[in-house]
Amino acid sequence: MRIRQLVIAAKERNQLASQICEVFDLEIAFYDPGITHFGLENVLIPVGNTFIEIVSPIEENTTAERFLNKRSGDGGYMVIIEVDDFVKEKNRILGNNIKIVWEADRNENGVHAQAIHLHPKQVGGAILSLDQMKPKSAWLWAGHEWESHINNTSSNCLVGVHIQSSLPKALMSRWEEALGKKGDPEGLKISLDESYIKFTEELDDRGEGINAFKISVKNKQTILEKAKSLNLLEDGNIFIGGVNFLLE
Questions:
Q1: Do residues 134 and 208 share a domain?
Q2: Contact residues for 15 (Cβ-Cβ < 8 A; gap 6+)
Q3: Residues 55, 159 share a domain
Q4: Can you name the residues that pair with 54 across neighbouring β-strands?
Q5: Which of helix, strand or coil describes residue 20?
Q6: Which residue segment(s) compose the domain that 242 sits in?
Q7: Same domain, 79 and 201
Q8: Are residues 77 and 194 in the same domain?
Q9: How far is C-alpha 28 from the geometric centre of its chain's CA atoms?
Q10: Any residues with CB less than 8 A from the CB of 43 and at least 6 apart, and which?
Q11: How far is CA 109 from CA 106, 135, 138, 146, in A?
Q12: What are the tens digits of pLDDT across the range 44-70?
């Protein structure tokens, strides 16, 4: 079980994608036409074999639009966790009486993709999705050619997400139940394979939600200097799309 994709909801997709790609030397891999079903447009950007997705509303009264209004602008929206046994995890979720608000079961070009989105009010902090691909090397949400768009010049992969709350211990407890994983009660951190989810006190005035993504990079100073030249530093951190990008 690991973080495979982190999602930002934004009013304007293209400018944000351009900024992320420029700072971290990344490439756009895919625009998913199927997401228009939700009144959204998106873009997928590989970071190694993990992904940043940006979604933007193109219709009124979408969940993403309500999120943007609630959090007063762009921000971290969803955490997508890749699981090893989808059926087992789904049965565990149902056994814990956690509501599933959306489910995907797609077969396309030899890839079987399954996913469930858990009720955000029950889990809290962000929309949590549990996903599995067969074969494991695939990631259908980014299309079939995403590997040809990986650029490892500066960035390796996403390794963490930080979620703030006025009650971080209580929030971690709900995520522990949703993930079937026990966290560190002192560090308020749930460790996953090659990644983690950390819960913090509220660090700004935007309320409960994602505060930061953690990304493994090759040269922190070079990336920070590039972000500074683009006016994308705030309080010493790279700040893009309402999210702090912390470097490892």
A1: no
A2: none
A3: no
A4: 8, 43
A5: helix
A6: 154-247
A7: no
A8: no
A9: 16
A10: 13, 14, 17, 28, 30, 31, 53, 54
A11: 10, 11, 11, 14
A12: 999 999 999 999 999 999 999 999 999
